[in-house]
Each structure stands twice: as structure tokens, then as C-alpha cells.
Amino acid sequence: MSTSATMTIRKTPAEEAFVRHFEAVAGDLPAAAASQEARRAAIARFEGLGLPHRRIEAWKYTDLRNQLRNVASPAVGEAPAVDRDALDEALGNLAGLDAYRAVFLNGRFAGSLSSLPDETGIRAENLAASSGAASSGDGDERIASESIVALNEAFVTDGLLFETAANAVLDKPLLIVSARAGAEDLLVTLRHDITLGSNSEATILETAVSIGLTGGQANARVDMTISDGARLRHLKIGSASPLVDLATWAARLGRDASYKALQLTAGAPLARNQSYVSFDGPGADLDFSAAVLANGRDHVDTTVVVEHLAPGCRSRELFKAVLDGEACAVSQGKVIVDREAQKTDGKQMAQALMLSETAEFDSKPELEIYADDVACGHGSTSARIDPDYIFYLRSRGIPRAEAEALLTEAFIAEVFDHVDAEDIRDVVVERARAWLAANANR
Predict the structure, then answer these.
(1) For the chain, which residues make up each domain, given as ranges?
(2) How many CA atoms within 13 Å lie on the side-chain side of 302?
(3) pLDDT digits (tens, 9 = 90+) for 203-223
(4) How do beta strands 108-109 and 160-164 pair?
(5) What is the distance between the alpha carbons of residues 288 and 298, in angstroms, rounded to a whole number?
């Protein structure tokens, strides 16, 4: 006689809190952002999946089930009043950029703080006020099994719908700001849908700021369709305030499309930036760069999955991390080349500069190739600052601390060279310098 038993996995306090919070606020979440049916299906999907953990290969180095201890209350209801001066102060050097703004305050669109483009061929409006919601989380097979995507759909309150007509050019960048205000920690959940018509062009920036003492968690999703011949430049400049940051990007590139993406993460105690890029048309180009600056016990995971589904496409991935204290950076880059994707050119590089003996760098590059006429490769390195370089600079009269700072900045600066616009490049370089001055070798 045989017996069988089923083992029930105990829910963590965080997993229980997500479900409990959903039941408490479900009636207050805007129907235009997602229907109640879609939200309940999503929270049921999350209950089945649970938080990701190290037994899931893609989350091997970021055990969210153990690392996420608390869940802040979801942002619902009215936000405190915030004026433009307070927002500009929180934005710091980003406030000086000549850019349109889409500001979301405690998860809701703030029209008085925003300045959306109003040009022929450009559509920009907030999700909760739109006649059509963004696509559901389980509609994209690449991310359907991700529990943080299920949480995004369950709790989403608003986001930006941005669309360009064919041949339209956005005349200046559009800055998407997730602003928090008040004294309580909040869970802020946003979803943005970006569609570029054929041969159009746009620059999109994302950032998050805190006005006051509020912290908590962020869960953001960005869906991008970059049509034939279109060009999208996309930058995420991470929050300067401590924040648990979970973000998902999903992009599809048409024929001869170009997607240039950069992420700067500095000072996040726990972050996962996961990106999925598919080449759906031939001749498309991807340039993906990420810079991580981490200290203390920060944990930052950058995961990029690139699918070459069409021939003659090019992808470049560059990841660089500066790690001090007991910080941990994770770089996972997976390139998949379909049988039809002949003449694929794919390269990825991950490098870490270790400023302490207790820092950790986990790098997992992968190539999954089914075509036979390709040029693909990857590399990964981690090292301390070369003492010969220190000696050379000190022999020229430069003090040790300044020499180390110069070499550290030179290491990370390669990522910022991928930013075309000089004013935006100056912003990210200044952010990196400020973090290095305040945190490196402390």
C-alpha cells in the first residue's frame, strides 16, 4: 500500500500582509487602472506563486521571500498637498532639466505638478483617467509567471499612457516622477504604457522622490512597444531616499527600431530591476547599461533577458557596480537567440569594483543559442582598485583618498558615456559623484 502526502508551504508575514492589504483596499482602487475582476485574478495568482525565492532560478541570488520582511500600506485616498517648490527641492538636480513632467503623488496623477506634452502626434495622459486601461499582467508570456507583476496588477493605482504617431518627435524629454508625501511608509504601485509609432522618437526618464519622511516600497511596471524605425531613449534614475524598489520593464522592438536604456541605482536597501527585451523585427538595436552604487547591506539585482527572434539584430549590455561595506550586487544577463535570428550580434559585460572585503558580487551571464550564424559573447570581472594605479597617482602628489575617488569615478563613468544628451549625462554623473563622496570607503 502506498501513501502520499502534500506539503503546505507556510506563508510568510509579508505574503500574508499583501493579501490582507488587498482585501482592505480593493474597493478604493481605481477601476480605470484595472478592473476588479483583473485585480482579484492577479491577487489569486500571487497567492499561488508566493514571493520569489532562491529555488526559482531567476531569483537565485535575490530571495525576496526571506528578504522582504514588512509590507507598507498601499497608497489609496487623498495625498497631502505638495507645491512645486517642494517637489523641485526633492528632485534636486533633475529639477533643472528642460523636460515635460508626469508627476504621480502617492500613486495618483498630480495634474497641478505636471506639464504633459501637447503636440500634434503625441498622446500623454494618466491611466486612471483614460478610457482604456493598460494591458493586463498575464497578457505577456515573458512576465506572466512573475509574482511581483501579479502584485503590480492587483494594486496599481495609476500610470502614464504615452503614444506617438508615425514620424512624430518629442521635442524634449518626458520625466515621470513617483513622489511620496506624508509621514507614513507607503506601497506605491504604478504601471506605464509607452508606444512609439514607426520612425518616431522620444526620451523618457523615470525617478522617485520623497517629500518628508515617507518611505516604504515601490512596484513599477513599464510596457514598451517600439515600432519599425522608432527610437526610444529610456533612463531610470533611482530614488535618493531608501526604498524597496521592484521594477519590471518589458519592451518589444520592431524592424530597425532602437532602444537605448540606462539604469542608475544608488542607495537602495533592496532593489530588483528586471527587464525583458524582444527583437520582433530584423535590424533592431539594443544598448542597455546599468550602474549600481551600493554600501552597507544594500542588495541590488539587475536582471536582463534579451530574446533575439529576428535576424540581423544587435544587442549590447554593460553592467558596472561599485560595492562597499557588506553590499551585494547581482547581475543576471540572459541572451536567447532563436533559430530564425541568424546574423545576431550580442555582447554582454558585467564588472564590479570591490571597495571592501565583505562586499559581494554575483554574476550569471547566459547564452542560449539555436542559430548557427551568430556573434555572441559575455564577460564578467570583479576586482579591487589596482595598487599600481594608486601608487602612480600618489607619486604625482595626489592624496590616497582623492586617488581612490578618481579611479572609482573613472570605473563607473563608462556607463554614463552611453547617455547621448549632455544635460542628462551631467545629472547622472553628478548623482554618482554625490553618492561616492558620501558613501565610498566609509
Answers:
(1) 13-384
(2) 33
(3) 999 999 999 776 789 999 999
(4) unpaired
(5) 23
Q: Counting every residue, how long is the chain?
A: 442
- Between CA 128 and CA 29 the distance in angstroms is 10
Would you put residue 164 in left (φ > 0), alpha (ψ -120 to 50) or beta? Answer: beta
Residue 182 cell numbers, joined = 506624508
> How far apart are alpha carbons 383 and 131 in whole angstroms?
52
Give the span between the Cα atoms of 297 and 198, in whole angstroms.
Answer: 44
Q: Where residue 403 falls among pLDDT bands split at 50, 70, 90?
A: confident
Task: Identify the burial level of 112 via C-beta atoms within 10 angstroms of its C-beta, where 0-12 means exposed, 13-18 middle and 19 or more buried.
Answer: exposed
**How far is residue 165's CA from residue 440's CA, in Å, rounded to a whole number?**
45
| DSSP designation for 119 | -
Q: Other CB atoms closer than 10 Å to residue 422's CB: what's the count?
A: 8
Q: Give the angle subtended at the CA of 55 by the CAs of 54 and 57, to the nearest 5°.
A: 85
Beta bridge partners of 264: 237, 291
